[in-house]
Amino acid sequence: MKTTYHATRGDKKALCRDAKPGTPLYVIHDHVAIKGEPSTTYTEWIVTDDTMPFTGNRIAQNPTSGATIPVPSLLAQERAVHTARPAGIPNRAAMVTHETYSAAAHQAAQKVANKHAEDAAKALIRRYAGSR
Question: What domain of life is recorded for the organism (predicted)?
Answer without folding.
Answer: Bacteria
